[in-house]
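Task card 7
Instruction: Convert sequence to structure tokens.
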Amino acid sequence: MSLKNDKFPSSAAFDAINSALTGSDADRKDAIKQGNAVFAFVLKNAAGETAEWHIDLKNKGEVGKGLGEKPTVTLLLSDADFASLVAGKANAQRLFMSGKLKVKGDVMKATKLDPILKKAQTKAKL
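Output:
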């Protein structure tokens, strides 16, 4: 099942993150140990539409559509900014400070997401 949404080009990254998590049991367990949270993403495209995905690094170690079960932290940003973030072209702190990234919930947990996104960088071709 693909997590990609054609209206959100950067959503292909969720497939890459999922394959990075499910590719190796050791990688998944390591990611759960590092993350220990449910990360929800609300992306907004150029047309003003929004869509939601989540990365469960608390229980299952998987990626899915929707906000997931009781997200620890929710990140709200544009599709283009998410693409830059996953590609390593943008810095999450700079996006946050400039108001392009909004965080709801445990802000400190959001910092745990960086290593997981870095793993996906090698697999995502955005």
